[in-house]
Amino acid sequence: MCPRIFLVAAALAFAWGPFAAGNAATPCYIATYADPMHCDVNTFTGGDVYMVDVWIWVKPSDVGLKAIEFSLGHPSGAYAGEVYTNPDILLELGDLQSGVSAVFGPCQTDWVWIHRQVYYVFSTETRGYFMINGHPAAAPYFKQYASCEEGFPIYPMEVSGYLALNQCAYICGCWPRIQTVRPFTYDKVRVDFGACVGTYGEPFTGNFHLFVEGSSVEALDVAAAQRISDGVFDLTLNGLLTDGTTYVLVAQDIPECEGGCNWIESSSRKFHFDSAIATLLQAHNVSVVDGAVELEWTLSEVDPGARFLVSRSEDGGAFEALAGTPSEVARLSYRYLDSGVEPGHGYTYRIEYSAVGGRQTLFTSDRIAIPAAALALHQNVPNPFNPRTKISFTLPEAHAVTLEIYDVSGHLVTQLFDGERLPGGTHAIDWNGVDGAGNAVSSGIYLYRIQVGKTSLSRKMVLLR
Known about the structure:
Blueprint: H1 4-11, E1 29-33, E2 42-43, E3 50-59, E4 65-73, E5 78-85, E6 89-95, E7 99-108, E8 112-121, E9 128-133, E10 144-146, E11 154-156, E12 158-161, E13 163-165, E14 180-185, E15 188-192, E16 208-212, E17 218-220, E18 222-229, E19 232-237, E20 245-251, E21 267-273, H2 275-280, E22 281-289, E23 292-299, E24 307-314, E25 320-321, E26 327-330, E27 333-338, E28 346-355, E29 358-364, E30 368-369, E31 376-377, E32 389-395, E33 399-407, E34 412-422, E35 425-431, E36 444-452, E37 455-463
Parallel strand pairs: 1-12, 2-13
Antiparallel strand pairs: 1-3, 3-8, 4-7, 4-9, 4-10, 5-8, 6-7, 9-13, 10-11, 14-15, 15-19, 16-17, 16-20, 18-19, 20-21, 22-23, 23-27, 24-25, 24-28, 26-27, 28-29, 28-30, 31-32, 32-35, 33-34, 33-36, 36-37
């Protein structure tokens, strides 16, 4: 066994030694994601031409990561475009589609991205998975890595997940779980899993169990379950809910739509039954729209002179009243938009109904998270430039930042930020075309690179004097 990657690495004076295989205490995982934070395993396209980012991340084993071999599979109808490589990779052979071999300079011991591959998709009907495959020249381990141990022994890798295109993929053991439970009447509740639920074994009457909070004895059986949409069911009970009582609905062994897991462990959600509110509130929804939180609800009736009170809890804190009045978008349907939210924070909302008969809580939402802005390094403006240009970047949260400029030979020209801690958000800085000593640099291509934690991004720019 002598894969190409290790021959080339030896030529670069890496002391590879014998290529013996071993057994690491923990596995090395590799997977594809839709975002630079290695979180999202779903991506959906829209429009005539759509660019899809496929990030390849690796979680090294306990013996570290020095080199890696694999290939990247993609759905038919997705066309490979630009590819970006982690700048800590010193040597790379081949390509992602036919098989790539990559050698790191420093030993990698924590989550690290390998490549970011851009694909172009021309139809929303294009579906499938971006998945890690083996390297055809890497027998017997088709997906393999070299550790940082003496001799750089070779180990197989484990694929921990795929990126789904225009369909849902769920992490085994995580989805689907109950997101909300809302009673309609004394004998009917709606349960929303927030995810696609499989069709095996419907109508799921035996998968639901209802308890009074604090009791281990089932309060009521589920007599019927009607699918409203993927992941949403109306449950009809064989008895009546008791007014003013808090219940716990438990779902067990609910199958998902996709393969991977046949079922999940149990999921539960508490809800409070108030007959007046249950019959008054017909539906409600809370969602993130263009960076703001939109609350919508529909009632069965409204008392004369009734008004709504909106309050908000940020990151689990106390509820505080919000200004503004909900608008009536249709008869008995209302909307409230909260634009004062911040990326990376979570919010819970409470809508109260105030009328002559008193004040009641219509609903309290589940916590809704505002996605943090992804780390991004933007193209300098203008480009080409002479002699000054502006470089901007976006931080998902407060972090120490290093921003450097290199020439095409890889020599450091100057540092614009040297580990300064900056708040989350978009920042910009000017470069006037001089090096660290204050000397004007010549015309040519320059690279600017941002380093935030273990993640780095780079772009090219052109100086024309």
